[in-house]
Amino acid sequence: MNEEQPLETKDSATPPTNLNRRSFLGGLASGFVAFVAAACGRDTPTPTPLPTGCPTPTGTPVAGSSLLPGPATGAVGNTTYLPFVSNNPVTGEAVAIAPTAAPTDTPEPTDTPKPKATPRPPDTPTPTMTPFPAGPPSKLGVVVMRNDEQIFDLVATKGMAVMTTLELDANFVARIKQTSPKTRLIGRIDLPQLQLADLDPMSSAQAFVDQILPIAGDDRRAAYFDGWQAYNEPVANTADEMKRLADFEAERTRLLADRGIRSVIGNFGTGHPADFELWQHFLPAIQAAQEHDGWLGLHEYSAPTIYFMSTRENQGRYPGVSGDDNGWLTLRYRKVYNEVLKPAGRTIPLVFTELGIDGYVQNSRPGPTDGRGWQDFQQYWAENGFGLWGPGAYIEQLVWFDNAMRQDDYVIGACIFALAASSGWQSYDILGPAAAVLQQYLGVHAAA
Predict the structure, then answer these.
(1) For the chain, how many structural domains are there in total?
(2) What are the pLDDT digits (tens) for 366-378?
(3) 68 Cβ contact list (under 8 Å, min separation 6)
């Protein structure tokens, strides 16, 4: 993006182990060896990453704010839309081309509360940059964890495809949809980690529906939400556990559909289920979701770059992407659809309810060993040719994933984790300069 020094890492501390977050994936080194062997033409089994941690933090729906608790393309036939910085050959300074402004003429709904004052990332000098050129509609969106006015700067572009929100305030969600009616809004409530070994699917489904209906069925919110998650990043390690999960998701999908509410099922963590054979036992849930206009939710992360362990790894800053590319972390969804869902006739609409850089995904990956969110990898990117300005380098990588999603009609969109993150997750937060770069991109990739 710019020939300036990258931003300093804002939060490199590891969140406490007792704090719920996305599943840590270990044991992928052997899977990576298998992946390399496959590239050489040898048949290999699917790698089996092992969970070594806990799921993503979830939000508690309250009348005001759902704040989370703090800690206790280069390819042939494809066009790449990426920003470049032109330097003055004499001074070496970047050419000053400001990002385009997002439209701001959409009225706010009556009685929308002002967002509460919350900590923001420290201000850093934002280098000038060459804007992204105009292109086809984006499929990018965000995970919102609390209310912040910069959210509406992005929404006002009308280029945001989807949003997962833990902020469930009725006025907040009304303003989102009134500003950008085409943005798909997915709700999520605070739930403990699902224990599948002894789960009673039917009673648990009814209990979930009883818990969600006062929120999802509320007239002040019902008109604005397009779907609801249940448990986040469930971990099914056996056929029996996956069957229980499938029965739960199928039943809650049917119960909510009877009330006109769409379900977003699955929401598996990166690399899960580790054993591709377990997908066969989840097909009853896919079928129920298809019958009731539901969607499949997945999470995809990687690190130190979003290309890591994909077929575009080690191809530089602008690797491009084609419809034949796939991976074990990002672009893993193509393996799921091509090897399991399409052959079974279950090509269900897909939404990535979380997407981004996450250092937890692989124990033996390159980069800083204590790196967590994208902010912790800025120095690595600067030292390895992925851009000297971290916020711009990160959005470039997300644009690569956007290009891939546009090649697959069944993909609705992906939610970048996270915008306006809660305490403890600042290194994942794009609030500030990164969101400004994303705003410019969405502004020239809005739906017609």
Answers:
(1) 1
(2) 999 999 999 999 9
(3) 57, 58, 59, 60, 145, 146, 166, 422, 423, 424, 425
Query: Is 169 domain-assigned?
Result: yes
C-alpha gyration radius of the chain: 21
CA distance 43 to 290: 33
The 10s digit of each residue's pLDDT in 219-253 is 999 999 999 999 999 999 999 999 999 999 999 99
Q: What is the pLDDT of residue 362?
A: 79
Cα separation values, 440 from 124, 144, 444, Å: 18, 19, 7
Q: What CATH number does residue 246 fall under?
A: 3.20.20.80
Sequence-ordered list of residues with C-beta below 8 angstroms from that of 30, at least 6 positions apart, any chain: 47, 48
| Model confidence, pTM | 0.77
Alpha helices in 180-323 (DSSP H): 201-216, 219-222, 239-257, 283-291
Whether 209 is in a domain gets the answer yes
| Cβ atoms 102, 437 nearer than 8 A | no
Give the whole-angstrom CA distance, residue 88 versus residue 79: 27
pLDDT tens-place string over residues 86-131: 333 333 333 333 333 333 343 343 344 444 444 555 555 656 668 9
Q: Is 114 domain-assigned?
A: no
Dig out the tokens for 296 from the structure. 């499949």
What percent of the chain clears pLDDT 90, i.e. is strictly above it?
Answer: 69
Q: Is residue 123 part of a domain?
A: no
DSSP string of 158-186, one letter each residue: T---EEEES---HHHHHHHHHH-TTSEEE
d(C-alpha 156, C-alpha 179), whole Å: 6
Query: Measured between alpha carbons, how far is 389 from 381 in angstroms, rounded to an integer?
Result: 9
Report the sign of the C-alpha dihedral through residues 101, 103, 104, 108, in that order.
Answer: negative
Alpha carbon 264 to its chain's center: 14
Of 434, 437, 448, 401, nearest to 140 by C-alpha is 401
- Output the pLDDT for position 120: 57
- Write out the H or E segment, with its range, that includes residue 403: helix 390-406
- Residues in CB range of 222: below 8 A, 6 or more apart: 216, 260, 261
pLDDT at 363: 76
Contacts (Cβ under 8 Å, ≥6 apart) of 206: 251, 255
Percent residues over pLDDT 70 in the chain: 71
Whole-number Å distance between alpha carbons of 133 and 295: 31
Measured between its terminal Cα atoms, the distance across the chain in Å is 28
